[in-house]
Automatic annotation (TrEMBL):
Signal peptide: none
Coiled-coil segments on the chain, per record: 197-224, 250-406, 486-733
Gene Ontology CC annotations of this record: centrosome; cytoplasm
Domain of life: Eukaryota
Protein name according to UniProt: Leucine-rich repeat and coiled-coil domain-containing protein 1
Keywords: Coiled coil, Leucine-rich repeat, Repeat
Region (Disordered): 79-105
Compositionally biased spans, kind Basic and acidic residues: 82-94
């Protein structure tokens, strides 16, 4: 600022030609300051106040320079107008009024002896003295840069200008007196004027001393005000820095809040994903439960089918028992019939004997011819019957073979179908197990991912908590520092207000004294009023600054409270999310335990069903073997029965033929027939006994099989009851 003031041009126009204060433009430094101040958006009123102060200072400095230049020009012009003569020694400027008044008689007595040299030297000395003082004023003005002291410089310069004008007028009067030295009256008047001039000079010197003292006091006050102003600027800079830091911290907190909001959104999205995955797991569990229910239904159906097969086998066994009983009854009936036949044969033999006894005997040749014919006929008939029976036996054997082949084909088809069904069911179960194992692996992978994500989020939350603690400590420290700076600023503002009030009072008193003492300063009252207005404006600006500072502090406190509330809300949300996360972890653990229990139960059920399937397969094979054995035995018994029936029929036919033929035959032939019949009856009895033994063996085997089937049935019923109880317990646990 001092360089700018010193480098200003010194050629100034007269006072009448000076432009108004409002036409002075701002310097480039002023523009730079305004541009620098415009960076801080919160200090707009301060920027306007600084700009106004700076413009006022520049205008007052320009006015001071112009006034000093005018004073120098007037002093130089006065010195040039004075004629070059020998100047006598003069007294000092510091002469009292009493000495001047006492020496008037000496001047009046020594008037004729005095030379005609006018008293120009004193005026020149006074002018030089004033110029020296003005030089001092210039140096002081160059040192002073406060707007509060400009009116005092203006006053002093105007006083000097008025004194110089009076001195010029007195010089012209003195020149006229020198021209008219002969006139005593004029000389006396000149002496009176000189006395008046001395008095005026003495008064001016006294006023000058007072003004210098007042200027020194004002300089001290100005230096103090300058220090206060510098402190105020420093405090404003500190406040600006604090506000900038707070804004920066606010921006960082907003960024942190935005990050936290984004993380909260991500966490909510992940929670939604976890919930969706949980719902998928629940759906999968439901599907597994449905599959288990289907498997249970299928197993129940298989059990029902097995029970039906067992019932059918039991029915077939009961039918076989009935058939055996029927065979036994038929055997008893046949035995009775054989006994009846024996009785009939015995009766017929007796009758035949009686007839033979009564008949007449034929000749041997005729008898032999008749026997030969009858024997040939009977042999032919017997051969034909044997052929027919052989053909029937072949047909029946072929039919039996066809039936066996068909039965074998049907058994193979049923076995293949049963194997295919078992293979299909096993493939379905294997595919389900594979899908479940794949899903379990996916769930394990997702579990590891979720655990890693939860660990990362916990680390982030821990970092955010530490950052929150650090920010809380920093905010508390900043709040305490702001409160301290606020208290200091309030104390400084109060001291400044008191100083301003004291300065105003002193300034008003000084202005009143100067108005009374100096009439010249009346022209400068307008400037003083303007300066007062400026002071009032500055006071208003100080008040506005105080209000703005209080408002800014309130805003900062409100923002801090809002940020604290926002941080508390964010922390509460994070705690809620942590609680939800822990709940989800617990739910996941419970679900994993349930899945493990379900897997164990499923594995146990699979093993049980596998064991039961093996048992059922073993039972089916045993039933098939028993059925095959029973059918083979039944076929054998039927074949034996057919053979016995055929033999009985043959025997009956033979008996009938023999009855018809042997009525005419000889006792020998009858005896031979009787011997053959005895042999046949013995063979039949042996065969019947063997058949009875076989039937008894078959009955014992069937009884053992029935007992085994009953035992197996009871065991199966107990196992089924155990399975039903286990399934009911599993369903209750689910």
């Amino acid at each position: 600022m001092e360089k700018v003031v010193d480098s200003m041009p010194m050629a100034a126009p007269p006072m009448d030609v000076l432009p108004p204060l409002e036409q002075f433009t701002s310097t480039p430094e002023d523009n730079v300051l305004t541009s620098l101040l415009s960076v801080c958006p919160s200090s707009e009123p301060e920027k306007i106040n600084h700009e106004n102060d700076f413009q006022n200072e520049m205008k007052l400095q320009k006015l001071d320079d112009q006034i000093l230049q005018l004073l120098n020009e007037t002093s130089n012009s006065l010195i040039d107008n004075v004629p070059e003569k020998d100047l006598g020694p003069k007294r000092d400027a510091d002469i009292t009024s009493e000495s001047d008044y006492g020496n008037r008689k000496e001047y009046s007595r020594k008037i004729p002896r005095r030379t005609k040299i006018p008293y120009y030297a004193r005026t020149i000395q006074t002018i030089k003295h004033h110029n020296k003082n003005n030089g001092a004023f210039v140096s002081c003005n160059r040192k002073m840069r406060q707007p509060y002291l400009k009116d005092l410089y203006v006053r002093s310069s105007l006083v000097n200008c008025n004194v110089l004008r009076d001195l010029d007028e007195q010089k012209t009067d003195i020149i006229k007196v020198d021209k008219s030295v002969s006139d005593d009256n004029t000389y006396r008047s000149l002496l009176e004027q000189l006395d008046q001039e001395r008095e005026m000079r003495w008064k001016a010197e006294q006023a000058e001393k007072k003004l210098m003292d007042y200027i020194d006091e004002l300089l001290k006050q100005a230096s103090e005000k300058k220090d206060v102003h510098s402190l105020a600027l420093i405090t404003t800079d500190r406040l600006k820095d604090v506000i900038f830091k707070e804004r920066h911290s606010k921006a960082q907190l907003e960024i942190i809040v935005h990050r936290l909001q984004n993380e909260v959104k991500k966490l909510t999205i992940e929670l939604m994903k976890a919930q969706d995955q949980q719902e998928d797991h629940i759906r999968h569990l439901r599907t597994l439960e449905k599959a288990l229910e289907k498997m249970e239904k299928q197993k129940a159906q298989q059990q029902q089918a097995q029970m039906r097969l067992i019932q059918e086998v039991e029915l077939k066994a009961s039918a076989a028992d009935r058939e055996i009983n029927l065979l036994r009854t038929s055997l008893h009936q046949e035995k009775e019939q054989v006994q009846q036949l024996h009785e009939l044969l015995a009766l017929k033999e007796e009758e035949h004997r009686k007839e033979i006894e009564t008949r007449a005997f034929f000749s041997d040749a005729e008898f032999q011819d008749a026997l030969a014919k009858e024997m040939s006929k009977e042999e032919r008939k017997h051969e034909q019957e044997v052929k027919e029976y052989q053909e029937k036996i072949d047909i029946l054997n072929q039919q039996y073979l066809d039936l066996e082949n068909e039965f074998r084909i049907a058994l193979t088809v049923e076995a293949r179908r049963f194997k295919d069904n078992q293979i299909n069911t096993l493939e379905i179960l294997i595919e389900d197990d594979k899908q479940k194992s794949i899903q379990i692996e996916i769930l394990k992978h997702e579990k590891t991912q979720l655990i890693s994500e939860l660990a990362a989020k916990e680390s982030l939350i821990y970092g955010l908590r530490t950052e929150r603690k650090v920010w809380g400590h920093e905010l508390a420290h900043q709040g305490s520092s702001l409160a301290q700076s606020r208290g200091k600023l309030e104390a400084q503002i109060e001291s400044l207000c008191r100083e301003n009030e004291s300065l105003r009072k002193s300034h008003e008193s000084d202005c009143d004294a100067l108005r009374i003492k100096c009439k010249i300063i009346e022209d400068q009252t307008e400037t003083i009023r303007k300066l007062k207005d400026c002071l009032q404006e500055k006071d208003d600006q100080v008040k506005l600054l105080q209000e703005k500072i209080t408002f800014i502090e309130k805003c900062t406190q409100e923002q801090l409270s809002e940020k604290c509330s926002q941080l508390d809300n964010v922390i509460e949300k994070l705690e809620r999310h942590n609680e939800r996360k822990e709940k989800l972890k617990q739910q996941l653990k419970t679900k994993e335990l349930e899945l493990e229990e379900i897997r164990k139960a499923y594995s146990t059920l699979n093993q049980k069903w596998h064991d039961k399937g093996e048992l059922l397969c073993h039972l089916e094979t045993q039933v098939k073997e028993v059925k095959e054995k029973f059918e083979n035995k039944e076929k054998k018994l039927k074949a034996e029965r057919d053979k016995s029936l055929e033999l009985q029929k043959d025997a009956l036919e033979k008996l009938q033929s023999m009855d018809d033929a042997f009525k005419k035959q000889v006792d020998a032939i009858v005896e031979a027939h009787q011997a053959e019949i005895i042999q046949l009856t013995n063979e039949k009895q042996k065969y019947i006994e063997c058949a009875n033994l076989k039937v008894q063996q078959v009955e014992e085997e069937m009884r053992g099989l029935l007992e085994e089937t009953c035992k197996n049935k009871k065991i199966m019923e107990g196992k089924i009851k155990q399975l039903a109880c286990a399934l009911s317990e599993i369903q209750k646990e689910m």
